[in-house]
């Protein structure tokens, strides 16, 4: 399974563990703007770099340019964000999973833009798993159906939120707080901070888009 990791240029302390991902097989790294420098600083050679690179000095840009044979530089005046351009580049590697990091913390408009992009892309490409991951959280959107959720010591807590419309017929199994055919309404916090019991749990629902957030604490 090919995983593409897109590293954007948000605060460095917010990044997920890139070295952990580097140790896995079939992982492609794309640097978006300053995210390209973050990858190189951690000893990772980007498979591609994308963006206007306005956050890099000339010296830093030459450094990242020397580390890859695949670079796309765009003008600062453009319709897409650097992150969006990097996500488009990710599709050229035929991934089964796309992980986005470096978009939390810092500018809230960039974070909101990233969440909206992941939401749109998940609906357009249901066969690909999209995740936003930082050092303590993992965020992804779930489409109607049944989803297995595997226990992970890095993410003890599990929360579900309705995105844009209520979620219908929500059934949770093998979690601390189980439900059967209930509804997650817009604005509710009732489905926050659940926990998986055993090796895996599951969620199923018939309608709506579910925002799932897994957290360390």
TrEMBL record:
GO molecular function, one term: ATP binding
Top enzyme class: transferase
Keywords: ATP-binding, Kinase, Nucleotide-binding, Transferase
ATP-binding found in the keyword field: yes
Entries under CDD domains matching the protein: TPK
One protein family per Pfam: TPK_catalytic
Top-level taxonomic group: Bacteria
Residue ranges of domain Thiamin pyrophosphokinase thiamin-binding in the record: 145-211
Family annotation (InterPro entries): Thi_PPkinase, Thiamin_PyroPKinase_B1-bd, TPK, TPK_B1-bd_sf, TPK_catalytic, TPK_catalytic_sf
Chain coiled-coil ranges: none
EC numbers on record: 2.7.6.2
A GO BP entry: thiamine metabolic process
Name recorded for this polypeptide: Thiamine diphosphokinase
């Amino acid at each position: 399974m090919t995983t593409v990791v897109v590293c954007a240029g948000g605060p460095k302390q917010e990044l997920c563990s890139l070295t952990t991902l580097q140790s896995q097989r079939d992982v492609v790294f794309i640097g978006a703007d300053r995210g390209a420098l973050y990858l190189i600083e951690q000893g990772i050679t980007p498979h591609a770099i994308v963006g206007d690179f306005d956050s890099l000095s000339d010296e830093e840009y030459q450094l990242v340019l020397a580390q890859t044979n695949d670079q796309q530089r765009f003008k600062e005046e453009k319709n897409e964000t650097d992150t969006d351009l990097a996500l488009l580049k990710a599709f050229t590697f035929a991934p089964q999973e796309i992980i986005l990091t470096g978009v939390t913390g810092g500018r809230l408009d960039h974070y909101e833009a990233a969440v909206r992009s992941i939401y749109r892309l998940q609906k357009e490409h249901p066969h690909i798993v999209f995740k936003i991951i930082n050092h303590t959280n993992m965020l992804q959107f779930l489409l109607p159906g049944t989803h297995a959720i595997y226990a992970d010591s890095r993410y003890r807590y599990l929360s579900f939120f309705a995105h844009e419309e209520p979620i219908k017929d929500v059934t949770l199994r093998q979690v601390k707080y189980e439900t059967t055919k209930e509804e997650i309404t817009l604005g509710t916090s009732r489905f926050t901070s659940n926990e998986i019991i055993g090796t895996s749990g599951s969620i199923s629902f018939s309608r709506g888009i579910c925002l799932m957030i897994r957290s360390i604490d």
